[in-house]
Amino acid sequence: MAGPKRFLGALLVLATVAACAPGIAQPAPQPAAPPAPTTTTRPSRPAPPAPAPVADRGRQSAGVVAAGAEAPYNYGPAVLAEGGRIRMWWCSQLRFADPPGDDLLHAEAASPSGPFTAPDGGPGQAVLSGSVTGFDGKHVCDPSVLKVGGTYYLYYTGAAGEHANGNAIGVATSPDGVRWTRDAGGQPIVSPAYDTTRDNTYGAGQPSVLFVDGWFYLMFTDTTGRAAGWNGAGQFVLRARDPAFLNHVEALGERGFEPVADTRKPRTRSVVDAFSADWMFVDALDAFAIAHETEHGTTITFWNRDFTGNPVPPVTIPGRWREGPGLVRTPDGHAPVAAEDPCGRIPLDVVRATVDGAAAAPTDLGHFGLDLANAPGCATAGTARVLNGFAVPSPENTVDLVVGGKVVRVERRSVTDRLATRVLDRRPPVVDALPLVARVPAGAKAVRAPDGRLALLLEDKLWLVAAEEVLALNSSTVTAVTQQTWDGYEQAGDLRR
User: Cross-referenced InterPro entries, in alphabetical order (predicted)?
Assistant: First the structure.
């Protein structure tokens, strides 16, 4: 291979070979359900069983979707669906990016099937390289990108050179996902625990981070972790309120999450037997979905919120692979919502390296995916947040719009069509558990603020709408009001989308 000797990539190739063996996390035993009560007057007839979840609508790209110019390898992608585009960051090596070593590239496409291109039309733009002097002085790799509160967070593996257990995890921030500034004082936020010495001396890295209910969840590899396999495979989990994991940190162990003073606390529990995994949170299931490579492709293993059980069996996205599945996720690391069936259908799409190239390293990123259909989603009021913005038939021959876990009942279907992301044909039972907070009758009053904002006035409360056309469809007369009058109304909700 021309150019400098590769460290992170070479170690990951070794790890990838070890990861070829199946590594599905087995579902935890579930307690038996109590027997149904009986009656002597009329025997109960059991309800028909719900359809089992099935893999549906398999798909894959026609060929390679992304590659770095003249790069010997391309793998470990992070993929975000944002603003109608697909953004991807991945590990590569460019001869013109200093210092010589692993670099992180960025490109965008209209869909996961590419082609991914940089703003200049090239195949990939280098956005982060080694720091020269820090723990990540020579190599940066394995990106995981998150957007929370307008800030992008990049979690990555860094290494200063070729030394045993030299990998550690760093974090950087950005206003746009392209211009990155190292955070945490340029120091690693997670280092090897050194619980156990193994032949695989990779260390700690391959991070994947998501954001759920105010917590940053970090999943990562540590070949020195106590609960890792004989070859160093395993995925450990930390969570923190602080994106740099400098305080308020908890580690997942045998008894669940427990506070720790140091991120190097012994790694006593692995959630899946794998290297280079990625994950996302599935709101409809209130569960984590972990993507990891197994014998026949990328297996998705599901864990409930407290990691005590598996809500649905694993599903495998077939096709050739070599390393590093990157799940297509929302900017905060959640599963995309299926517009036609947000409760029962979960899109599962990954980008992964498919071959070992001329440099004997993973490359040729390709897109593979399927839907998990008949998923038992929206089982609780909490999981109904996935329905936010959707409308469903109501029991009053009107339409119910779900807004922030609550229901707004709209009289006219034409109005609902403008307010909703989509109007579903069927009403998920969970909607019956959501509070009805407002009704929108035809001709309801409407007001306009001095700055042009529009709102329906329902029971003297403001419900913001996006356009006057919505009010016209509802036959609502718009009255201009003073700022004092506008401010005097309680702002109850936002119907804009």
Answer: Glyco_hydro_beta-prop_sf
CB 326 within 8 A of CB 207: no
- C-alpha angle 128/367/13, rounded to 5°? 55
The owner of tokens 């807004």 is 403
What are the CA-CA distances from residue 207 to residues 221, 236, 399 (Å)?
7, 10, 44
Rounded to the nearest 5 percent, the helix, strand and coil shares of the chain are 10, 40, 50
**Closest by CA position to 377, among listed 389, 385, 369:** 385
Q: Which residues of 7-40 are buried (b: 16+ CB within 10 A; e: fewer)?
A: bbbbbbbbbbebbeeebbbeeeeeeeeeeeeeee
Give dist(CA 250, CA 335) in Å, integer.
24
Q: Facing residues of 334 across strands?
A: 281
Q: List CB contacts of 329: < 8 A, sequence separation 6 or more.
A: 79, 80, 81, 210, 280, 335, 336
pLDDT tens sequence across 160-203: 887 777 899 999 999 999 999 999 999 999 999 999 999 999 99
What mean pLDDT, rounded, does the chain reach? 89
Tell me phi and psi for residue 239, to 5 degrees: -140, 155
Please report, as a single letter, which amino acid is at residue 156.
Y
Are 15 and 200 contacting, i.e. CB atoms less than 8 angstroms apart?
yes
- For residue 18, the Cα-to-chain-centroid distance in whole angstroms is 26
Q: Give one DSSP letter per residue of 199-215, joined into a string.
A: S---BEEEEEEEEETTE
CA quadruple 203, 209, 212, 214: dihedral sign = positive
CA–CA gap between residue 417 and residue 411 (Å, rounded): 11
The region of weakest confidence among 96-100, 203-207, 364-368 is 96-100
Map out the domains of the chain with their CATH numbers.
54-373 (2.115.10.20), 388-494 (no CATH)
pLDDT digits (tens, 9 = 90+) for 206-238: 999 999 999 999 999 999 999 999 999 999 999
- Which amino acid, residue 450? P
Place of tokens 């506008």: 486
Rounded-to-integer distance, Cα 89 and Cα 155, Å: 11
Kindly report the number of other CB atoms within 10 A of residue 135's CB atom: 17
3-state secondary structure labels for all residues of 12-47: HHHHHHHCCCCCCCCCCCCCCCCCCCCCCCCCCCCC
What is d(CA 275, CA 243) in angstroms, rounded to the nearest whole number? Answer: 23
Dist CA 100 CA 126 (whole Å): 12
d(CA 424, CA 377): 15
Counting every residue written for the chain, the total comes to: 497
